[in-house]
Each structure stands twice: as structure tokens, then as C-alpha cells.
């Protein structure tokens, strides 16, 4: 965990593993199950109530069980299947955003890009979670100096956010060898940026996403700032100060009841 470093203008600096790396790869279900089996075998070798038995019980209660609980909660929260089931159970919740799965002509139906010659950076693909029709792939090479991003403007009309109400952003993401190449606030990598009036700019997640992953779900909630009804809100999906490929699909913005 402590051995991952990147070179920056200020010299080498460590990169903290993402929650995905921690709970899916490092402390995977197989690793936690193997540790639990070791505890069970050790407990069978000592006398009940002995100092050794109490020590094992302490380590199980204070280390293994909290880790297993936190890992299970993370996997549940990022489960693609769980999120698809949630959406299916709430068909009344309209998506404020257009072209959530990037099918058809997404750059004519709501999304825009920040780079000229976008064919080099953006590609519609069929690779998507089961049940979704497609996705978009962003590719950032080491010789590209600028961040690449997708942006959608909304508001000032029938899809305006309402001040004081709660909203939920959710989407599915897959990373392919995304590596940070500088240490910025929150680190380089993949993230979501919401501009909800000049008084509220929010970036999700706090630590940007890096590494290689399967499809997983991410979601965040926020309260619309005062003046949202009269502001052209915008949502960015971007790769900032990093290289690699990222896939997006199923991008939704819904009001929370």
C-alpha cells in the first residue's frame, strides 16, 4: 500500500490507493475469507478462555470484522447490479441529463468536449455493463498537455435545479491503466465536477480515481445552491493530470425524494 509513488515537479510523492484498489484488489473477498479461515484454525488450536483465545478474539473483533464489514459495504455501494435494480424500481425519477448512455449522437444531444479533433480522444463503444446499450471511452496519452473532459449544460428552463433541494449524481465507470502524472489537490485522475452556480463548485470523489478496474458504480448527493434556477449549471466528466483510458455510461442526475 505504501510503495506506490509518482514523480512530480516537487519530487517523488506517494499515491494513496483508491477505495476500489483497497476493497476489491488488496483486501479482496478471497483475502478476507482466507484470513477468517486462519483465525478459525488458530482458535481450534488453543484452549477456550485462554490468553491466546482471548487475543485471537480481540484481533478478530478489532481488525478482521471491521475490515470485512467496510469492504462489503463498499462493494455493495459500487455494485453495478444493485444500482441498475435501484433505477428499475424508480422509473418515475426522471434524468435531468440527456443521452445518459452515449448512444446515437451524444455530441448533438447534450454533451460537448473541450478538445479539437475529438476523434482522437473520444470514442463511442459497445463495451458497457449488461443491460446498458453503450458507453464512451476517453483516452489521454502522455503527449497530451491538457485535461480531456465531457461537459453537459443544463438549467434555466424545464430542467433547472431548484434551490435547497437534494439531488443525486450517479454513473458507471471503468478505468484502464489510468495513472496520475502530477500531484494536485485531490490528486490527478478521473473525476466528476459540478458547477452549480458560482457559489457552489463541487468535485467528486475527493480522491480522484486511478488504476485499472471492472465496471463499477459511483454516486454522490448534494443540495442545490441558492440561485440554481437562474444559472446554466454544468456537469463535467474528466481526466485531469493523468494518462490512460476511462469509460463512462449510465450518467444520471435525479432529484432525491
- Biggest beta sheet attributes: 5 strands, antiparallel
The sequence of SSEs as H and E is EEHHHHEEEEEEEEEE
Walk across the major sheet and give the strand order: 3-6-11-8-9
In helices, the fraction of residues equals 10-25%
Total strand count, please? Answer: 12
Structural category is alpha+beta
Unreliable stretches, pLDDT < 50, 5 or more residues? Answer: none
Distance between the termini: 39 Å
- What's the average pLDDT? 86
> What value does the Rg take, in angstroms?
21 Å
Tally of helical runs: 4
Strand content: 25-35%
Give the tags.
257 residues, alpha+beta, 35% strand
What does this protein structure show overall?
There is one protein chain. With 257 residues, this protein is an alpha+beta fold. Helices cover 24% and strands 35% of the residues. The chain has a five-stranded antiparallel beta sheet, with no helix packed on it. A five-stranded antiparallel beta sheet has the order 4-5-12-7-10, with no helix packed on it. Strands 1-2 form a two-stranded antiparallel ribbon. A hairpin with a 2-residue loop joins strand 1 (5-8) and strand 2. Helix 1 (19-26) crosses helix 3 (51-77) and helix 2 (29-44) runs antiparallel to helix 3 (51-77). The two termini are 39 Å apart. The mean pLDDT is 86.
Q: What is the secondary structure topology, with strand pairs?
A:
Layout (H helix, E strand, L loop, with lengths): L4 E4 L2 E4 L4 H8 L2 H16 L6 H27 L2 H10 L21 E3 L8 E4 L9 E6 L7 E7 L11 E15 L8 E7 L5 E9 L6 E8 L9 E8 L1 E14 L2
Helix pairs in contact: 1-3, 2-3
Amino acid at each position: 500500500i505504501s510503495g506506490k509513488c509518482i514523480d512530480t515537479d516537487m519530487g517523488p510523492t506517494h499515491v494513496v490507493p483508491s477505495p476500489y484498489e483497497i476493497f476489491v484488489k488488496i483486501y479482496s473477498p478471497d483475502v478476507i475469507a482466507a484470513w477468517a479461515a486462519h483465525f478459525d484454525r488458530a482458535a481450534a488450536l488453543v484452549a477456550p478462555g485462554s490468553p491466546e483465545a482471548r487475543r485471537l478474539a480481540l484481533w478478530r473483533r478489532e481488525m478482521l470484522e471491521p475490515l470485512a464489514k467496510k469492504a462489503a459495504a463498499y462493494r455493495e455501494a459500487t455494485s453495478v447490479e444493485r444500482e441498475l435494480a435501484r433505477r428499475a424500481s424508480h422509473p418515475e425519477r426522471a434524468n435531468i441529463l440527456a443521452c445518459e448512455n452515449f448512444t446515437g449522437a451524444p455530441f448533438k444531444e447534450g454533451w460537448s468536449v473541450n478538445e479539437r479533433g475529438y476523434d482522437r480522444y473520444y470514442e463511442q463503444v459497445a463495451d458497457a455493463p449488461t443491460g446498458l446499450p453503450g458507453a464512451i471511452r476517453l483516452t489521454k496519452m502522455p503527449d497530451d498537455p491538457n485535461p480531456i473532459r465531457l461537459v453537459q449544460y443544463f438549467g434555466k428552463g424545464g430542467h433547472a435545479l431548484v434551490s435547497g433541494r437534494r439531488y443525486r449524481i450517479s454513473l458507471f465507470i471503468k478505468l484502464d491503466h489510468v495513472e496520475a502524472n502530477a500531484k494536485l489537490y485531490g490528486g490527478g485522475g478521473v473525476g466528476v465536477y459540478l458547477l452549480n452556480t458560482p457559489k457552489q463548485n463541487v468535485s467528486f470523489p475527493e480522491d480522484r480515481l486511478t488504476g485499472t478496474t471492472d465496471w463499477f458504480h459511483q454516486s454522490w448527493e448534494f443540495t442545490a445552491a441558492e440561485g440554481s434556477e437562474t444559472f446554466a449549471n454544468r456537469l463535467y466528466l474528466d481526466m485531469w493530470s493523468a494518462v490512460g483510458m476511462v469509460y463512462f455510461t449510465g450518467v444520471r442526475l435525479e432529484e432525491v425524494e
